[in-house]
What does this fold into?
Amino acid sequence: MTEAAIRRATPEDIHALVQLEQATSTAAHWSRSQYEAIFQADAPPRLTLVVENGQLSGFLVAQAAGPEWELENVAVAPAAQRRGLGTQLVRALLQEANRQHAVAILLEVRASNTAARRLYEGCGFVLAGTRSRYYQNPQEDAILYRYSFNESPQMHSEERV
Ligand SMILES: CC(C)(COP(=O)(O)OP(=O)(O)OC[C@H]1O[C@@H](n2cnc3c(N)ncnc32)[C@H](O)[C@@H]1OP(=O)(O)O)[C@@H](O)C(=O)NCCC(=O)NCCS
It folds into this structure.
């Protein structure tokens, strides 16, 4: 497919982020005020990316502090899924974390979320553990994944997003 455009999110994107997240049942659900807090001056460092393919079609939020970053949420609009946009977002995160000399990126995901798990594994994340009955409604284990830069030699790009 043609490369969609990835850019950093701005406060003008908040409404679209909330709508997109609400359209994807398995995304991590945040309140509107949590999205607004991302852009406040005293907020913890985060990398928030959006992908546009004619319209805003997906986003990714990661805590971007210290040697170990955390991928907190990623969602692609249902109509735009399975076209590589999730992969593009995760790869952009890997590039930026590598550029900022992060050592690893961590994340947790519901055990049953096959789409997300395949996305992460396809991008080079490896299993790092399980948190038993971590999620509620419905109760479910969390699977932990880790991407380690020193063990992933494919990341050499200095490209910046
Ligand atoms: C997870 C998600 C972001 C993937 O986005 P996407 O743009 O569809 O991902 P890609 O097109 O890059 O697909 C990458 C790989 O993921 C896997 N995948 C994606 N959707 C899948 C599905 N419905 N079933 C099985 N595997 C799937 C495939 O291996 C796919 O590669 P392939 O198409 O070459 O087989 C998307 O399904 C989504 O928004 N889900 C709801 C939100 C969510 O659960 N977020 C993660 C938890 S916070």
In short: DSSP finds four helices and seven strands in the chain. The first strand starts at residue 5 and ends at 8. The CA atoms of residues 71 and 159 lie 19 Å apart.
